[in-house]
Amino acid sequence: MAMKCNVERLVEALVGAAVMADRKNSNESAEQKRHTHVVTVSRNYGAQGKVVAQLLADRLGVRCCDREILQGVARRANVDVDLVKTLDEHVKRIKGDWWHGFINGKKFSREQYFHHLVKVVLGISRNGGVIVGRGAHLILGPERAFRVRIVGTLPRCAERIAAREHLSIAAARQRVLEVDGERSEYIRELYDVDIEAAGFYDLVLNSDRFDVETTVESILFAMQGAGYVIPEAVLKVSCP
Q: How many domains does the chain have?
């Protein structure tokens, strides 16, 4: 269950360079780093992962980063954010020769995308944040982030999508399957990893069993158990 060798080498090289820069430019101690909250959230479509991520970020007092990642990649690569967004949402378009730029004949290669993606994710991790999707859990690993996956069964996820997007249950089921398929293919194509592989996460929660608030509180307590410093005010469970 290892990433493709070229991808793994690229990620390790960029992370290693970032670590060396951090050591050179910062006197931050290991104790201080325990107070920096970085969480990655991978999710099934309709499992309420984005809602959980935003509430978790609010509780921790950090940014929730989703579309901001695409904007960061586009800005660093000097390409149109709509191009990055389209490719991000439709990974089937990036097979073969990968991402040849569609604007002014400029090429946007696979290696360039990875380089900028890793740099953006690492930049977020330095100041803390909740990072949604895009294999951030594989880029940062257990040393630099607490890695969460929010899952749900197809029937329950479809119910939520049907209500949210005003679709029939049948249409919602198909939509969930399509989006989950795209996300799974994205991780497989970029990292050669199964998105469901539990060994790459620190915590997997089933949204069929827990509401959003309980899910967030479970993540916070799990982070504390893993050694993160979580203020008591943040851990406090709201009583009805």
A: 1
